[in-house]
Predict the structure.
Amino acid sequence: MFTDGKSSILLASRRELLLGLAAGATAAAVGVVAPGDLLAQTPNTDALLRVAVTGGNADSLDPHRTQGQISDIVRFMNLFDGLSEYKPDASVSLSMAESFTPNADATQWVVKLRPGIKTHSGADFTADDVLFTVKRILDKDNPTKGSALINFIDPANVKKIDDLTVEFSLSAPYGPFVDVWANRYLRMVPRDFDPSNPIGTGAFKFVSFTPGRESQFERFDAYFREPAKVKRLFISNISDAAASINALRGGQVDLAYKIPFAEARVIEADTSLRLLNNPTTMALPIYMRTDVEPFNDVRVRQAFRLIANREQMVKVALAGYGSVGNDLQGRSIAPCGPAPIPQRVQDIEKAKALLAEAGKADLSVDLTTVNGTAGMVECAQVFAQQAKAAGVTVNVKVLDEAAYLANYGNWEFGVDFLTDTYLSVVARSLMPGGTFNTSHWNDEEFNALYKKAVSISDVNDRCHVIHEMQRIENERGGNILWGFANLLNAYNARLQGLEAYTVDSAFYHLRKAWLA
């Protein structure tokens, strides 16, 4: 049995595979106000917390049928809970679930809910709500962002044992079952869920919502854990970074999500503000659709990977707030560590030779990007400059968020951002049918290894399989994974309780934030 606070192999499995930060980095990155700087030690429980996030007119309050905009995620992570959740260091703890109990080969899992969980309407959250949520996420007629994460589950084989107990019978072993439920796209909803009037179990309950503009929430006093420390929460859509920072400096908001790397030093020097530097698992892949010309030729993909000067991209596109990638998912994969693959470095002559061999010399391509998160535009511009040396013309097309998302998944050459633990990000972005598989990569050998990896409970055995997956991804994958970005947030110095996160974000846990 796996219960909150008890160590176990499977509860640790995502920890062992996390795309994490180096030891001790969290404490250095938090940027918490020193005790001597605090204006008061006691939270003002009647306070209003005002948050600025990026978003668009396609905003949604639905945690499952969403385009995955930051504004959507911030809203639903504070409205709803999961069976388990990520802690700041990317380890997993239990949330709505009191325990997970597997059978001997991990083909059956019994989930026991915490007693006394209430929804915002005052009803009990029960096993029937879990069954409803699972069926909703896996509804093939209404695709969801989380479906690829739990497509090993057949809703027909999920049954209620009693009001607080659910049994999952699987067709194959699934070792990291506890950890997968920590993913943001697997939030639990009650069985009468209506996105136009979203009832959840989270620390904040819904008040009002104007898509593309703002949303308002208030503290849910009957929350099953410690209630939020502020009374009201306003979330404003401010996609322009300069406007977001100006609103922060002017006192219109307390916390701003989108901070350009170029502004970081200025904010650090401002005594009225604080910088939250999250050394996250966020990758900014430049993806190449492997099912269409010219990227259906692996030689072209290899050439484009050799064009990238990764150190320069991190220095310029991320202003140094990040680390170099090696065309592999994962900033690090503890305790496995990365596969013993040499770091790929820029080699223009080899890139030119590969393009000539593929009959693609003097290639011209459009690279589509969006000003979605810091570095997405800048990395495209830097890569375009680097490509000139190989005789490749890269035309950078910067779209607004709505236009980019309207054709998401269909751009032939584009920039995306992904942040998650290893097996989850593989399921969503490298497996066929994955909702973020923008490269349309479908490698039979890799797919088989993934299925093998998730069936293994033994850590060392799983590491061997993951290393082989990485070798294949590095050799013939569809992404230029040039680097991993730190995520920078800024906040008013009066705001307390924020922590740097590796997988999640302080914005997803606003119940912890407080104002004097």
User: Anything to note?
Assistant: The radius of gyration is 22 Å. DSSP finds 15 helices and 23 strands in the chain.
